Amino acid sequence: KCSVKQLLLFVNVLLAVKVVCKVINMDTELPLSRIRTIMKSSLNTGQITNEVLFLMTKSTEMFIQKLTEEAYGRVKDDNTLKYKHLSQYVQKEKNLEFLLQIVPAKIKVKDFKNILEIGDGNSSSESEDERQIK
Question: What angle do CA 95, 101, 106 make, to 5 degrees?
């Protein structure tokens, strides 16, 4: 049984969806099958309806568009968006913290080797200290 209030709410939602569908282009740039596969890879995902799949795909497209527009807005040199621009933008924006591991700052192999050597130096000195204690 539905109350009149619930029925009116449902009708309003349907009308809103109809308006949104007219405003938003119903075509997607990203493949729906790929988005569905990614969504299914999550352990807690239940049934994925076509509506949910479409909304997730459109949301992802809009997120990518906003991310690239914001990063491009910070390009100063040759008006070409490069990986370093995206990386710098992600590093500076607190609300994009979840992307830090996906879009990390590039470092040179030489610098990475130095970091590893420093890490190895610390771990070997710790093991020497441990040996002295015993």
Answer: 105
